[in-house]
Amino acid sequence: MALIKYITDIQFDFGAVRLLPDECAKAGIKRPLVVTDKGVVAAGVAEQALAALRGKLPVAVFDETPGNPTEAAVEAALAAYRTHEADGIVAVGGGSSLDLAKGLAILATHPAPLAQYCTIDGGAVKITAAVAPVIAVPTTSGTGSEVARGAIIVLHDGRKVGFHSWYLVPRTAICDPELTVGLPAGLTASMPVAHCIETFLAPPFNPPADGIALDGLERAMKWIGKAVNQGSNREARKHMMSASMQGALAFQKGLGAVHSLSHALGSFRGRTLHHGTLNAVVLPAVLRFNATAESVVANDKMDRLRRAMGLGTDGAVDRFIAQINADIGLPKGLADMGVPESFIDEAIGKAMKDHCHGTNPRVATSDEYRRMLRESW
After folding, report:
1. Which ranges of 20-111 does DSSP label H, i.e. alpha helix?
2. Could you tell me the pTM of the whole model?
3. Beta strand pairing status for 150-154 and 160-164?
């Protein structure tokens, strides 16, 4: 049975951040806690959201979101939430801030520990409509978490896991491309591409999601070069923000081995590894693995990807993605990112248990994951 559900209010336009007070009122938020990170604050982007709220609502700021959100950071945000006597959350930033806000939305109204609500352990059913309301203001064209029902958080035990519930979908996504103009685009520009491709290839039946993902991919392919090379190109920033949002709107189909691997690799404690870059680096190997999957072949999905990407009928999608990665200056492989070979076995074990593992077009064995990692080295 296919569940096809689109439930997020989206305000999309240059200057949309000025709508924050109205959207807070609609969500019943009278004392918001702004969840962000120090980089967004230093860039002056958080100030644009705060300026819209000051003088209209009492607001406090939590800016300690780490590069990969953690259970400990959620607990720190909860302390700030309670100190402010907040009744809702405004998340301003990239996927890390948005995901941390969703973790906070759970703990603000549900008993600790956070770990009990993770999807892989069956915790999704424990998340109720009582979650604190979240308004999401993305500042990158990255994860699309502003319209998604999931959050990825590193637990105290080192696992990087997903939390999923329709109750976690932000009440409103305020997508203001103005907030991304001039910010570095290289690290996030490849994320809409990976997201649109992987959710399109996922086997569940959801034609609306397929159409949204393909349009998002076509949009990203047309504008990614200008977004990376011309940081102040407003039209490029607008279309990349849309592509990011569209990829996440299609997430309800599921994802696959790209994300099971990137979640596993992202749990490496030796350094902070950027989620979008991990996706981009392993994507070519996963595409080769998925090309012969029954659901992919039967539905001409590789041909449809080629058309959306502007390739000829014989174009190699995996090589084309690898070239895009090189063109925008991403690392050549996992070794260049600082992932040690000694972590491979642990990463494979975590990927096999990830919530995205079972929705890949071909369910990978540990040996097949090992081969994909080797090809991505």
Report:
1. 20-27, 38-42, 45-53, 71-84, 95-107
2. 0.90
3. antiparallel
